[in-house]
Design brief:
The complex is a heterodimer of chains A (about 350) and B (about 400). Chain A has about 350 residues and is an alpha+beta fold. Chain A has three domains: about 110 residues, Butyryl-Coa Dehydrogenase, subunit A, domain 1; about 90 residues, Butyryl-CoA Dehydrogenase, subunit A, domain 2; about 140 residues, Butyryl-CoA Dehydrogenase, subunit A, domain 3. In chain A, strands 1, 2, 3, 4, 5, 6 and 7 form a seven-stranded mixed β-sheet that branches. Chain A is globular, with a radius of gyration of 20 Å. Chain B is an alpha+beta fold and about 400 residues long. Chain B has three domains: about 80 residues, no CATH class; about 110 residues, Butyryl-CoA Dehydrogenase, subunit A, domain 2; about 150 residues, Butyryl-CoA Dehydrogenase, subunit A, domain 3, CATH 1.20.140. Chain B is built from twelve helices and eight strands. In chain B, a hairpin with a 5-residue loop joins β6 and β7. In chain B, α8 runs parallel beside α10. Classes of the chains: A alpha+beta (about 350), B alpha+beta (about 400). The interface between A and B is large, with 42 and 45 residues.
């Protein structure tokens, strides 16, 4: 057993962390995260040049990584910096394109941004409720339906859309210039889009895509867990520093036991979050992948909210301000539970096995 | 990152499994599985089996008759024992006093006491807490006054677990009243048949007897029974408590309890329904399973650190807090799973009057109430938070 990162991953982590500290300082981050196009295309390209996207895909698809621990390494660093770049879409798209035998070169180089469109407005979480459908016309496939809150969908040149064709759930490639897209920013920074398909031309890249989509979503959920761990670590550092420096009643507020014990509880839960993320990363590609990812995403959803709420409460009023970084960490930590299935959704998936 | 055991560790695990399959008596594992308390003879029987294999003192070095195992091997052994429903090893001599004697005692004391722990001639109990000194252990007031070659002890100890089986007790006593409270404490070994000692049982919340109070009135103990230096007992006390915390996550107990609750919830009830099909119960169970899976990794991460550093770090306190909360939560579910049937008082708690309880009664409610102790003993979970505040947060 060994819980230390390999040399390659340590180098990746250090390189990316330095880059993010240098290029996504807090003011710059907020400037790009909350105004169109809700990220920084120039720095996206710089990050891609570092090989960060290549780390998300295995060698057989042209990448240099793709293991659970590679993905976790990248997203933990992104979470620590609250980086708003749309890497999640790139990750999930890579796992679909790779499984479909399609080329990934322009994705991995960063030249073409992809997003994955699965969720729909007004439906339950999960792929079972997908209503968007595909049919053939004279010139090929067309899609009809609406995809909702497509992360990175506003800045993507290409969208991978999950849609039904008869009994099969397929994956269809849509060029953003062919679709009606409404772009908007998110409460925690970064951008998403609504995608309206009205006989929108599409290329079918996977015919029976259910297991491929689930696999891509698992990878996405793992990435979000790691992102949350990074953001929780940064949050805890901010909070601990504040407890040591903020004075009330003539002493540092960290001297009050009521805050000390809550801080210990947060640290303990963050260690649990780190542990379950490590476990999920280790099980990628194994039989236990989906259930373990659901365990991780469920625990993370619960703990991230606790960290976010305590981060604000224990700081006091300062963390309610836009100007202070804690507020933005808190928002990201809470909203991660709104992406790719929340804590209850994944808890239900974990519990399903008991009926067996 | 590599979460797998090494080839050598897997071979060790298989060896442990084989040993347990061939040597763990079925009547003992049946009793453990049923949740029954074991009697003294049963515990001693299991100790003798382990001792014959040389596997009784898992945290002692080889030269003292221990296994010399590292943290990972100990973890594997304990996990396998739990999975096989083996009785737990009585910790007072083996896990608490043994490491203290090895670290602080004279060679003569080591020769006198350690072999007797291994072969079962001595059953030790712990004299730490007092009515006025629980979490604030350093405020203890049991006095030991030097009179020539003996100490004269007066005072009272409490929460002495399984003291009714013991012939000896290790005690923290006050040998000086000047300076900080921690500075005047000594660690001393006492024979329970010494005149002036009286042990009285304390009946606990669930009706069982596992702890006692011990009264000392002019008890004369030879000075040779002092371990370490006079007035340096606090160092020893802390060392003992840190050892007490190493396996305190109780992962094996939780894994065992989780499987029992799951099996219980899967049983088809009289009306054909199963509790596990109730989504709210299933969600409660899933939430604990997730915490437990995370806990296993947290535990392994800290074990690997301990293996490197040679001693458990302050993080052991995290394991204590989280591990006990998980065990209590599983006990809670085991009680809930029985519904109204959890309420009848089991026969042994009614002094053996079996006619007054249903034949298929279970001990789940007793266990639930008894398990409240987990977050209190070994340094309450609040004390663990104080420790972490200092060591981990630097506050």
């Amino acid at each position: 057993m060994d819980f230390q990162p390999s040399d390659d991953r340590r180098m990746l982590r250090d390189t990316l962390t330095r880059f993010l500290a240098d290029r996504y300082g807090f003011e710059h981050r907020n400037a790009v995260a909350y105004s169109e196009p809700y990220h920084d295309p120039g720095r996206w390209a710089e990050m891609a040049e570092l090989g960060v996207l290549h780390a998300l895909a295995p060698e057989e698809w042209g990448g240099i990584g793709g293991a659970g621990f590679d993905i976790a390494t990248v997203f933990e660093a992104l979470g620590r910096a609250l980086c708003p770049e749309p890497l999640l879409g790139a990750l999930m798209a890579a796992w679909i394109l790779g499984a479909a035998g399609a080329g990934l070169d322009s994705l991995l180089s960063g030249d073409t941004r992809y997003a994955l469109a699965v969720d729909e407005a007004g439906g339950a979480q999960g792929i079972e409720s997908i209503a968007t459908f595909a049919r053939r016309n004279d010139s090929g496939w067309v899609l009809n339906g609406r995809k909702s809150v497509v992360y990175g969908g506003g800045s993507a040149a290409r969208l991978l859309v999950a849609a039904r064709a008869g009994e099969a759930l397929g994956v269809f490639l849509v060029d953003s210039s062919d679709a009606e897209i409404t772009r908007y920013g998110m409460i925690d920074g970064g951008g998403a889009a609504e995608l309206y398909c009205d006989n929108t031309p599409a290329e079918r890249i996977v015919e029976n895509g259910e297991s491929i989509i689930r696999d891509a979503l698992d990878h996405g959920a793992l990435a979000l867990c790691a992102e949350a761990v990074g953001a929780m670590d940064a949050s805890a550092e901010l909070l601990l520093d504040y407890l040591k420096t903020r004075k009330q009643f003539g002493r540092a507020i960290g001297e009050f036991q009521v805050l000390q014990h809550r801080m210990v509880d947060l640290m303990t839960e963050i260690e649990q979050a780190r542990s379950i993320t490590v476990l999920a990363a280790s099980r990628m590609g194994s039989d236990g992948q989906s259930r373990t990812v659901s365990m991780a995403k469920s625990l993370i959803g619960r703990v991230a909210q606790q960290v976010a709420e305590e981060l604000i409460q224990m700081h006091g009023g300062i963390a309610m301000t836009w100007e202070y970084p804690a507020s933005h960490y808190a928002k990201r930590l809470v909203m991660i539970d709104h992406q790719l299935g929340d804590t209850d959704h994944h808890l239900t998936k974990v519990a399903a096995e008991y009926r067996g | 990152m590599d979460l797998n055991f090494t080839t050598a560790e897997i071979a060790f695990r298989d060896e442990v499994r084989r040993f347990l399959r061939d040597n763990l008596p079925a009547d003992l594992s049946d009793r453990v599985r049923s949740g029954a308390e074991l009697g003294k003879a049963e515990m001693e029987r299991w100790h003798a089996i382990l001792n014959a294999q040389g596997w009784l003192a898992v945290s002692w070095p080889v030269e003292f008759g221990g296994t010399g195992w590292g943290p990972v091997q100990r973890h594997i052994f304990e996990e396998e024992c739990c999975l096989a429903d083996a009785p737990r090893v009585v910790p007072f001599g083996l896990q608490m006093l043994g490491p203290v004697l090895i670290k602080f005692a004279t060679p003569a004391q080591q020769r006198e006491y350690l072999p007797r722990i291994l072969d079962g001639r001595d059953w030790w109990c712990q004299g730490y807490s007092e009515p006025g000194a629980g979490s604030d252990l350093a405020s203890l007031r049991t006095r030991a006054v030097r009179d020539g070659d003996t100490y004269v002890i007066n005072g009272q100890k409490t929460w002495t677990t399984l003291g009714q089986h013991a012939n000896r007790i290790f005690c923290l006593v006050r040998t000086a009243t000047e300076g900080k409270p921690q500075a005047g404490i000594s660690f001393i070994l006492v024979d329970l048949d010494t005149p002036g000692i009286e042990m009285r049982p304390i009946r606990l919340i669930e009706g069982g007897y596992e702890v006692n109070e011990v009264f000392f009135t002019d008890v004369r103990v030879p000075v040779s029974r002092l371990v370490g230096q006079e007035n340096q007992g606090w160092t020893i006390a802390k060392y003992l408590l840190s050892h007490e915390r190493t396996n305190i996550a109780g992962i094996g107990f939780s894994v065992q309890a989780f499987e029992q609750v799951k099996a219980l919830a899967r049983q088809v009830r009289a009306d054909g329904s199963r509790l596990v099909d109730d989504p709210l119960f299933a969600a409660r169970l899933a939430r604990i399973e997730i915490d437990l899976e995370a806990m296993k990794i947290t535990n392994l991460r800290m074990l690997v650190d301990a293996q490197k550093q040679g001693a458990p770090g302050a993080e052991a306190s995290m394991l204590k807090i989280k591990g006990t909360v998980i065990r209590q939560a599983l006990g809670d579910l085991a009680r809930r799973a029985l519904g109204p049937a959890a309420a009848p008082f089991p026969a042994e708690a009614l002094d053996g009057n079996a006619a007054l309880v249903p034949p298929d009664h279970a001990r789940n409610a007793m266990k639930y109430f008894n398990n409240r102790k987990l977050s209190i003993f070994g340094g309450s979970n609040e004390i663990q938070r104080n420790i972490l505040t200092k060591t981990k947060l630097g506050l």
